[in-house]
Amino acid sequence: MTPLIAWQGRKSWRALAGLTHRPFPRSFEPDPMNLFADLLASTTAGRATADAAQITQAGPRIQKSRRGVEVKSAREIEVMRRASRIVATVLREISEMVAPGMTTADLDRHAEQRIRAMGAVPSFKGYHGFPASICASINNEVVHGIPSAKRVIHAGDLLKVDTGACFEGYHGDSCITIAVGEGMSDEGQRLSRVAQESLMKGLATVKAGSSLLDLAGAVQDHVEAHGYAVVEDYTGHGVGRNLHEEPSVFNYRTRDLPNMTLRPGMTLAVEPILNAGSKACRTLRDRWTVVTVDGGLSAQWEHTIVVSSDGCEILTDRDF
Questions:
Q1: What is the pLDDT of residue 68?
Q2: Is residue 281 within 8 Å of residue 175, measured between CB atoms?
Q3: Phi then psi for 117, rounded to 5 degrees?
Q4: Rg, the chain, Cα only
Q5: Domains in the chain, please, with CATH?
Q6: N or C terminus of the chain with fewer C-beta within 10 Å?
Q7: Exposed, middle or buried: residue 71 (CB in 10 Å: 0-12, 13-18, 19+)?
Q8: Which of 39-53, 60-74, 271-285 has the lowest mean pLDDT?
Q9: More confident: 17 or 252
Q10: Neighbours of 318 (CB within 10 A)
Q11: Distance from CA of residue 104 to its chain's centroid?
Q12: How close are the terminal C-alpha atoms of the chain, in Å?
């Protein structure tokens, strides 16, 4: 994950889409782990092709996108099942092994070793300069926390672990939230539960002929009924030959992003992110870690799915 061009500050999809009055810097770096920004950037003046040529071999190669949303073949879906099973296995193992006193680097080391042992490559490591195989975000950290040997995990922490694996050229992507040890607050437990429920509420709407807006509405309604806020700056995404593909899978009702009717064979990473307080976020000076502005807790759950005629298959299901 070497930087493609000089960093000029990480932007939310809103800034990149021109929905704020803040002008772009002359040379800007789309937030590579901002799940909509990648898609938007890929449409600008051939930049995606030029940038892809500069990616180092530290991580999976970024493939030149085909036009529009890809519908996967049966063969491609089977490969994605295998990639996603690797991701599910790693996340299940991490949820079982994490304990107070470990560091986020310990978890990252385990994830990378296991992904490679199962014949895959970590999707995140080397992706636009990201230095690790997992994102490990604790408490008020929303997304993209960088694992560190100095970051000790404590009892009562709300830990988000997001990882991906690339197997035979196709990616799986998933995130879980873990209440570490004893001492988790009731609020933290409830936030994580509602975040997971909102994911499943959204997935329950998915089938051929339904829309992204149907999914988003189900997520938003469940979240807001419990008094929480959907983070709007970061969305889900298509997934397949590239970690981030079209479409943007938003988690709230909006006219700012394109709605789409779902078709069998579409593969999506659906990932509601909830904040206990304000939806507002900011990025730290490491230019990766995103935190809540008000210091409140944040939770996230994510699955990679494939759309079918009458529902969806959760490819990263950990119950196997």
A1: 80
A2: no
A3: -65, -30
A4: 18
A5: 78-314 (3.90.230.10)
A6: C
A7: middle
A8: 39-53
A9: 252
A10: 17
A11: 18
A12: 32
Question: Taking Cα atoms as reference points, which of 236, 237, 238, 243 lies closest to residue 60?
Answer: 243
- What one-letter code names the amino acid at 13? W
32 CB-contact burial (10 Å; exposed 0-12 / middle 13-18 / buried 19+):
buried
Q: Average pLDDT of 282-307?
A: 98
Distance of CA 35 to the CA centre of its chain: 7
**Is a pLDDT exceeding 80 seen at residue 117?**
yes
Indicate the SS3 state at residue 200.
helix
One-letter amino acid for residue 230 of the chain: V
Q: Mean pLDDT across the stretch 290-312?
A: 98
Tell the residue number behind the tokens 């196997």, with chain if given. 320
Which pLDDT tens digit goes with each residue over 61-100? 666 555 589 999 999 999 999 999 999 999 999 999 999 9
CA angle 189, 238, 176 (to 5 degrees): 20
CA angle (286, 95, 222) in 5-degree steps: 80
Mean pLDDT on 43-61:
40
